[in-house]
Amino acid sequence: MPPELSAMASPLIGLRRRAWSRPVLVLLILSALALVSIICFMTLGAKGSWSFVLPFRGRKLLGLILVGYSVAVSTVMFQTATNNRILTPSIMGFDSLYVLLQTSLVFFFGIGSLISINADLHFLLEMVVMIGFASALFSWLFVWQERSLHLLVLVGIVFGIMFRSIVSFMQRLMDPNAFNVLQDSFFASFSRVDTEHLWFAYAVLALVSFGIVRMVNVMDVLTLGRANAINLGVNYKRTITLMLIMVSVLVAVSTALVGPVTFFGLLVASLAHALVGTSKHKYVLPAAVLLAIICLVGGQTALERIFAFDTALSIIIEFLGGIVFIFLVLRRTAR
Amino acid sequence: MIITTDITKNYGASCVVDGVTLSIPAGGVTSIIGPNGAGKSTLLSMVSRLMSMDKGTVTVDGLDVSKTGSEVLAKRLSILRQDNHMTARLTVRDLVSFGRFPYSRGRLTREDEGHIDRAIGYLNLVELSDRFLDELSGGQRQRAFVAMVLCQDTDYVLLDEPLNNLDMKHAMGMMKLLRKAANELGKTVVLVLHDINFASWYSDFIIAMKHGKVAAQGPADQMIRPEVLSTIYEMDIKVHEIGGQRISVYYE
Question: What is the reported pLDDT for A3?
Fold first, then answer.
């Protein structure tokens, strides 16, 4: 703006940034809670030598944190990329694709394939297929440009149902032993995190996180909607495609570790938005991750140690997440 | 100068914009008028790269819109659409700050802060600057978006139906402000309007579209004539001169 306007500048500098304190405060409280849950998880009810307990629980803890991180970040990013607050990758059938992949592997190559192939290689292969599918679906979507979101949702739901149907068809034809092994890996269970791919998964996540940190500001712009984002010079197609690729990597990681969880991401993303009170990703993303860690680690500790109850965390989380989903849908129609 | 050469857009079988060749002069206020479905918004969307065209080229100061990087264009041309559906929960100041994104990629400098303060002042949003957008009335929110676009500090400002949902007072205020931005800041303002009297009063140049083509164009006083308007809108329109301004009357 030219100089003649400089004269009108700012009697208002003192007014700035009231919105600051709340997100920071929320993040501090959430960090404290997350830390408490982690400490409780590691120490409560420990019998026997610490040199066994700490590494043993440490591995589980790392797994849970990894899952919480992937689910939270993938959901927030997906919601930003599609500019909605109701859909999540799992509602769109991302994780049923993963289940289909696993099932077809066992179906065509037998149970041996789950064990014999190098686990990391196996994981990598699945991820490549996941990314391939996601990119194909979304580049297809961009042919329609603006009318896309509802179409995408419909396509996602149809794909999800199709994948699930193929899976149940294959499982019906399958050898009962193979079915048993497979079924076991598909029930979401936070108490039996699959720790096999852990280091590999961490490496993948580190890479994705690097990308996310660089994109935080662009993601904020995307919350203004497609037209405003393009107006502000965002390379929309490339950014959205990149984000959706990252989302599919994250979903692959969490599904591989604990199995599909439908509403957990929605729960933490909605809570994070509500608590932080602003849409800035530098606050929302960490808040969602911390909430996920609190839910998983804290919830797991409470169930295992206080209620001596074992596998039910996923049920409770899905129940709460489902309620949030219904609430969001109803509120949306009320408007 | 914005030059479109033979640009065309089809939706399925229907041709919405049909080989439009235009040049929009730099400086001043240019209004695009025409009946519903004439292709006005589509034209504006193609000029501002929000929509790809099936044929033809658009250049803005010599830059080909479909080949130039989006981040380069964002410093030359800004577009504000009328429906701003967004999930974000932001304060007015946050929104206006986004106008600096093309320059600072989200890391605001002191200079950016100055631009933001000025844009907020220019649109009289100082008292509202810490309010959240969902707490504002339609007119105030519209002003906040215009502040964002002005903060973007581009030579060309394109607005798609900026007067929608505004009452007379706010509509008039908005047009005065755009006029002022053209006069004082040297912006080229291009807008789609439905109210031909607003177009007559505030614009220098008027482009009329009909059935995807340019039906007529010219300086405002040559366009606001009964014979021109009647053919464009296919109805009887009388034009009276009131206080040196041409006002159309079409109520029966």
Answer: 43
Q: What is the DSSP letter of B163?
A: T
Residue A14 lies in a domain: no
For chain A, how long is the longest CA-to-CA vector? 80
Question: Does residue A11 fall inside a structural domain?
Answer: no
CA–CA min distance A117, chain B (Å): 44
Contact criterion met (CB below 8 Å) for A283 and A31:
no
What is the token pair recorded at B65?
A: 């819109």
Q: A16 contacts in B (CB within 8 Å)?
A: 93, 129-130
Q: Do A2 and B185 touch (CB under 8 A)?
A: yes
Domain containing residue A271: 25-40+49-334
Q: Is residue A4 part of a domain?
A: no
Q: Indicate yes or no: CB of B89 within 8 angstroms of CB of A233.
A: no
CATH number for the domain including A94? 1.10.3470.10
pLDDT at A113: 61
Average pLDDT of span B118-123: 86
Residue A299: Cβ within 10 Å count: 20
Give pLDDT tens digits for B135-172: 888 788 888 888 899 888 898 999 998 888 788 888 88
Partners of residue B9 on adjacent β-strands = B17
The CA distance from A101 to A124, in Å, is 12
Q: Is the pLDDT of residue A18 over 80?
A: no
Cα end-to-end distance, chain B, whole Å:
40
* Assigned token pair, B45: 């969307």
HSE-CB of A254 using CA atoms within 13 angstroms: 31
The rounded distance, in Å, linking the Cα atoms of A43 and A153 is 44
**Residue A141: pLDDT band with limits 50, 70, 90:** low
Higher-confidence residue of A297 and A256: namely A297
Distance between CA B2 and CA B18 in Å, rounded? 18
pLDDT tens-place string over residues B185-217: 888 999 998 888 888 888 889 998 888 888 888
Confidence band for A115, pLDDT divided at 50, 70 and 90? low
Cβ–Cβ gap B118/A1 under 8 Å: yes
Query: pLDDT > 70: what percent of chain A?
Result: 77
How many whole angstroms separate alpha carbon A134 and alpha carbon A140? 10
Residue type, A80: T
In the prediction, which pLDDT does A287 show?
A: 93
For residue A16, is it within any domain? no
Q: Looking at the complex, report in whole angstroms how far the Cα of residue A145 sits from the nearest Cα belonging to chain B.
A: 8
> So what's the pLDDT on residue A48?
74
Query: What is the total count of domains within chain A?
Result: 1
B209 contacts B39 by C-beta, under 8 angstroms: yes
Structure tokens belonging to residue B244? 């040196």
Contact B94 A19 (CB under 8 A): yes
